[in-house]
Design a protein that fits this description.
This protein starts with a helix and ends in an 8-residue tail after the last helix. The relative contact order is 0.11. With 188 residues, the protein is an alpha/beta fold. The protein has helices spanning 2-38, 41-67, 81-87, 101-116, 131-136, 171-180, and strands spanning 73-76, 90-96, 121-126, 144-149, 152-158. The chain is built from six helices and five strands. Strands 1-3-2-4-5 form a five-stranded mixed β-sheet.
Length: 188
């Protein structure tokens, strides 16, 4: 009989804890509802104004980025590289060669990502026509992605070595890798 009484006591203790937790949660929700009910028309207008201001600011930044080539995947020449690097905070540079089919695979992914991540500039440079940059940036395998932040090389992705599926990589995995190095903002 003592054993049954002890089990009931444990069950009662668990029930009491659950009820107390529910009351705390209910109190928090009631406080939030009271706060929202207390909002005046002026408060709502202020929230709308701030939201609209933020949207306008984002739009202006986007237009400014688009004006210097963001949002598109363009081919540039070696001599343009340093000028492009000065104008953009984040740049993904794809070193490619026309006759390399694996470069076409990377091209496909970058072409898709450039529209989504307009805060980063996506460009490609023909490695065969850019001996100075190839030597200076130690490009020895194609495709190679050079990730630049504020005009400095942050990281180089050599071939498909950092992707779990090699050249069978999906656009999402390329995006995740760029996010890992802070080149794009992920939506997670």
């Amino acid at each position: 009989m003592e054993e049954g009484a002890q089990q009931k006591t444990v069950a009662d203790a668990i029930a009491e804890i659950a009820v107390a937790a529910a009351k705390d949660t209910e109190a928090e929700i009631d406080a939030e509802l009271a706060r929202l009910d207390a909002l005046k028309e002026d408060d709502l207008e202020e929230l709308r104004r701030k939201r609209l201001e933020k949207m306008k600011d984002t739009h202006a930044k986007r237009q400014q980025k688009l004006a210097v080539g963001h949002g598109e995947y363009t081919s540039i020449e070696e001599k343009e590289f340093f000028d492009v690097a000065k104008k953009s905070e984040y740049i993904v540079v794809h070193f490619w060669r026309e006759s390399t089919w694996r470069c076409e695979v990377m091209d496909k992914h970058l072409r898709e990502l450039c529209r989504k991540h307009w805060g980063t500039r996506f460009v490609k440079i023909n490695a065969e026509k850019s001996p100075y940059l190839v030597e200076r940036l130690h490009i020895w395998c194609l495709p190679s992605l050079v990730l630049c932040k504020n005009g400095k090389t942050e990281h180089t992705v050599v071939g498909f070595s950092e992707f779990s599926n090699g050249d069978e990589v999906g656009t999402e995995e390329v995006e995740e890798l760029l996010g890992k190095y802070g080149m794009v903002t992920l939506d997670h």
